[in-house]
Amino acid sequence: MNQRIARVFMVILGALTICAPVYAHHGGASYDTTKVVTLKATVTDYKLTNPHAAIYFDVKDESGNVVHWAAELNAPSWLLRKGWTRNSLKPGDQVTIVARPNKEENVRVVSLQKVILANGEELENGQPQ
Hints:
Layout: H1 2-26, E1 37-47, E2 54-60, E3 66-72, H2 76-81, E4 94-100, E5 109-116, E6 122-124
Parallel strand pairs: 3-5
Antiparallel strand pairs: 1-2, 1-4, 2-3, 4-5, 5-6
């Protein structure tokens, strides 16, 4: 009986050990899933890296000042299946970013929904992150 309890305890402990990093990575989602923002942007950098790809871009505010932003995307393996490539975006590209805003008003990081390229082509981020 003691061995059985020990095994159950070890299974539970193992599950918690595996789940903790996943929760730390995804559990504190900070994006407002009830809103969508559309931003006219100039790409400054694009990284197709794990665990999430990212787009860095500049947007002019109402006063004409340049504001630096970032967009979090899905994993590169998912994006590649959706048609993205390492060369999908390059610095200087004029794009439209459609994204979920951050819950914190002054944080300029969004969860990308899609990018609309200057030629009208749309690159979807795919399923929710």
